[in-house]
Amino acid sequence: MGIGMVSRLTPKKNQNLWIFLKPLTPGLWLTIVGVYVLSALFIWLIERPASVEQQTRQSNGEIGRMFGFSFSIFVFAHWEKLSSNLSRSVVVLWVFVVFILGSNYTATLTSMMTVQQIEFNSGKSTVGRGAGPVAQEAIGNPNFPNSHSKSIRLTSLEEYVKALSEGSKNGGVSALIEEMPYINVLVEKYPTRFSKVGHVMPTTNGFGFAFRKGSPIAHDISREIAKLREDGTLQRLENEWFKNPITDFDSRNTSDSVNPLTVRDFGGLFIINGIFLAITCFLFLTSLLYKNFHVMKEWGRLVKQYICMKIFKNKRDANAVHPKLDNL
Question: Which residues, 6+ apart, have CB-to-CB distance to 312 below 8 Å?
């Protein structure tokens, strides 16, 4: 049968005033700002006024308007009207990026603000044990991480709750060793006060059944239990009845830190965003050149005329300085 350990949870203290910045690394914050600025510039370039005079007169306000629009996506306040499908596509991608980053940021910040610390100091804490002989054997097992700790015998659910709530420093216990069914009931009843800390001797999370030697029903019951385990019924019932997760335990490290999100975690997202912006820029420039092809053609003609005039002038000046001598 399964033997497990449960410990008291205490809320994390001394929250940092700047904890809202911790879910993301500085590199990721800078990357997000860069993507925001780049998206805003793309929108401004696509949506800027067509005429040179209007663009010159309203350029400062237009840039601010486009940056304000990109920022407004964070709060989903879209008061700006876009006229180009390219700028709309950039906004759609920006909304997608904001949604992915925002959901992960919220989840990480929630974990950091609600993370709880398990009170268990290996070798120095008093450990409680159940009344059964199996729990007593687990305490004496050399593989148990706190086998040298002082242990006291507890016999009821009320004693479990009282001893764990008091803690080892106040005459209680820092952890309880008991059979998994009893631990599941305790944690399910008090999910915000206690947490499982892995399995001490994990085999099966239930009771064992003993039959008289040669019993005709032993084989049938064993076969049916095996079927229930193979088809996942036992695991499904355990997940349905006992939803509290098991916390991995390491007697040498009880850190409650939550790793912040890095640029690497969203590398694929930023690559997709960069490729999409590059394609959008290419399409915009192609469309711009096509619409102004006659202007470019006229510019080309003027450039050719200027070059020809420059060459003719240089030759004329050269002949004036070094006239040809026809009669030598």
Answer: none
**155-178: per-residue pLDDT in tens?**
888 888 888 888 877 888 888 888
Tell me what pLDDT residue 270 has.
92
Structure tokens at 196: 């499982």
10 Å CB burial of residue 149 (0-12, 13-18, 19+) is buried
Q: What would the two tokens of residue 323 be?
A: 């006239």
Please tell me the total number of residues recorded for the chain in this structure: 328
Q: Cα(176)–Cα(156) distance, rounded to whole angstroms?
A: 12
Residue 83's nearest CA partner among 119, 116, 130, 44 is: 44
Name the residue with higher pLDDT: 92 or 305.
92
Count of C-beta atoms within a 10 Å radius of residue 35: 22
Is the distance from CB of 273 to CB of 35 less than 8 angstroms?
Answer: yes
SS3 content of the chain, % helix, strand, coil (to 5): 60, 10, 30
